[in-house]
From TrEMBL:
The keyword Hydrolase applies. This is HD domain-containing protein. Pfam families: HD_3 (PF13023). InterPro entries: HD_domain (IPR006674), YfbR/HDDC2 (IPR039356). Keywords: Hydrolase, Metal-binding. Residues 15-182 form the HD domain. Signal peptide: none annotated. GO terms for molecular function: 5'-deoxynucleotidase activity; metal ion binding. Gene3D superfamilies: Hypothetical protein af1432.
Length: 197
């Protein structure tokens, strides 16, 4: 049992590093950037609070697990802003390969049974095809939008994001799993972009 516990503790020590990964999105008052650990914790709360909005068939516990681990790969890769253009952009083959390698390393720190289960959950989240993953991914896209709105534009200003870009890159992902949430968010975000024209 002591070797297993040592592996579990090594993983837990490693994931503390997520607190040092700075994201592009500022926190609510725009006083500093959010870190990836804060983002993951907040998303777990989103999943809990918005559970009544989840599509049919969603297993809330699995979705929360996905959200708690989905960004652990950023320990190695860093946060890649969704609105970053060119080079190693969000979703590029280069970033996907780096994240897959990071997932293998990080989940490989755990005892095999736990590591394999978490790695499979991470892979499912990335594929975004099951009800649990679609729900989790929709929440992952919702939270930064609301933070940017609270922070007066945040990373939208930094990356010169248009409403059309937001709707294409983010809105479609939110609406895929949470259409009512996207309608609610869109009604609040669209006026902000309109005012900036």
């Amino acid at each position: 049992m002591s070797a297993r516990l040592t592996e579990q503790m090594a993983f837990l020590a490693e994931v503390e590093k997520l607190k040092s990964v700075t994201r592009a999105t500022p926190i609510h008052d725009a006083s500093r950037p959010e870190n990836s650990a804060e983002h993951s914790w907040t998303l777990a709360l989103y999943a809990l609070i918005l559970a009544d909005q989840a599509p049919a068939g969603v297993d809330l516990n699995r979705a929360i697990k996905m959200l708690l681990i989905h960004d652990l790969v950023e320990i190695d890769v860093g946060d890649v802003p969704i609105h970053l253009q060119g080079g190693a952009a969000h979703g590029s083959a280069e970033i996907q390969a780096a994240e897959a390698q990071a997932a293998k390393r990080i989940f490989g720190l755990l005892p095999k049974d736990i590591g394999d289960d978490l790695h499979a959950l991470w892979t499912e989240f990335e594929a975004n095809e099951t009800p649990d993953a679609i729900y989790a991914k929709s929440l992952d896209r919702t939270q930064p939008v609301l933070l940017n709105l609270q922070a007066g534009g945040g990373s939208w200003i930094d990356y010169d994001v248009s409403f059309e870009q937001l709707e294409t890159r983010i809105g479609t992902k939110i609406a895929n799993g949470l259409p009512s949430v996207w309608d609610w968010v869109r009604a609040r975000v669209a006026p902000w972009f309109e005012m900036r024209r």
